[in-house]
Structure formats: structure tokens, C-alpha cells
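Q: How would the C-alpha cells look for this protein?
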Amino acid sequence: MEESRQVDERQLSRNLVPLPMVVEDEGLPDPRQGDVDEWGRSERVRSFIRTVYEPMYSKWFRVEWEHFDRIPAEGGGLLVANHAGAVPSDAPVIMHGIESRLGRPVYGMADYFFRTVPFIGTMWSRSGGVAARPENAERLLGEQGQLALVFPEGSKGPSKSFSERYHLRRFGRGGFVEIAMRSGTPVIPLAVVGSEEAMPVLFKVPALAKLLGTPYFPVTANLLAMGPLGIVMPFPAKIKISVLEPITFDVEPGLERYPRSLVLEQADRVRELIQEQVFEMLRSRRSIWWG
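A: Here is the predicted structure in C-alpha cell form.
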């Protein structure tokens, strides 16, 4: 019994959300415990980030949206987008645009790796990052009626070389579809153009990636053009985002499992819709820099 209780306590400790940490860096807001929700998000931090990021969003990337009204003003919704760029610009652009225009939070689902990096992990949580686990997404969508943003390509999207740009990778095993089915919320596909050119990958160095414990280590055109600044500074490619019609699944929510063939079929369907829209946007684009 004693051994069983110790195992249970260890399991519980892994699932607990870390207590809020005080950010002491000069110029950053000081998120107090009352300002941090159960996911670690601080609205004061998000507000600060939106203020700082606005010039990048509106002046540098000059972001344009198509069919923005398809994003729900209330209720849960799973935003699904293509993902690209060595340090992807699509996630902050999407989150900033929706929060600024709709006034509702967007939780970005990403690999748990970010949560483990000192300081960056804390700030990632404070700015709306949540570990990409099914139980987290289901609670956000079904129980709390929030917007969650996922990139089913995972690290395979941002690690693409420039010669492979805009060819979407496989959408994993369709976990996002199963999450939407179980939570009874729609999938809202987003097609993004411009992030591929913002920080294009010329080649990767697998040995350094293994040494650093990262999914990939890219050498970008930004790094060659701007030196160390190019590690974080994207090119001013114009970013356009097209919101496709929301997709709902005619299945009973809350089931433990759904047919694997149906899940994979619907994941491929979402990927194809986004891929087709990306190609359509590229055909009508006159310039990388001006759209």
C-alpha cells in the first residue's frame, strides 16, 4: 500500500501545473498568481507581448486575413494551420491577429520541449503556450470553450528546406481530428503564405541538433545575411492567412475511441484543403514582399 501511494503521488506531481513564477526581468510585466490561469497564461504578459509585437505584425509582416469572420467569436474551436520557417512566424501572427481583433485568448499547442527550457519555458506558458497533449486540448475545447491552435506537421514543417517550401508534410496520425471529435468542437483550417520566406532553411546540421537536444538545427538565409541577428530576425515577407470553412464531424462526442480509418481520412481531408488553398494563394501572389 505504501509503495502504491508513492507511485500515485509521483504520477500526480507530473500532472500538476507549476506554481506561477515572478518574472523579474526589467521591462517585462510582473504576473502575479491571481493573473495566471491554470494553464500558466498571464493576460498581463499577453497584453505586453501584443503591444510590443504590433509593429512587427502590422508594419513588418503587413498581415492580411481572408474570411476572418469564420473564426468563432465564442465557443470552442480547433485552429489547424500549416507550419513553416526555421523559427516559425505563423504561430505568433495567428495568435496576435485573433486576440487583437476578437478579444479572446488563443492557446498555442506545442511540443513539451519548450516547457523544459529555463526562462523560455516559463514565458512560453505565460504567453499562452500549452503542452500539446490530448487531455489538455480536450479540456480547453470541450470543457472551457476556448480556441486552441495546433500545427499537425509538427517539427517536420519548420525544418523543411527552402526547396521544399509550401509542400505540407503529413498531418501526424490525425490526433487533432480525434480531439475535435471527442470535444464536439469544429476544426477551423488556416492556410498561411509568407512564413516560408520569413526565415528560409538552407540546410540543417543534424550533429548539432543531437548535441543540443533539439528537433533540428537549421542554417538560414537570415543567418548568412544578418549574422547573429539572423538567428531571431525574420525577413519582411508579407504574410497572408486564409480561414477556410469550419469542419464539423458527424460523430457522437465524448467517446473513448473513434475508427482509426475515419480519423486518418478526415486528417488527410483537412491537409488537402489547406494544401489546395496554399497553392491557390501562391498562384495569385505577385510578390513575396508585397503580396
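Residues 22 and 81 are 33 Å apart (CA to CA).

DSSP finds ten helices and nine strands in the chain.

Upvote if useful.
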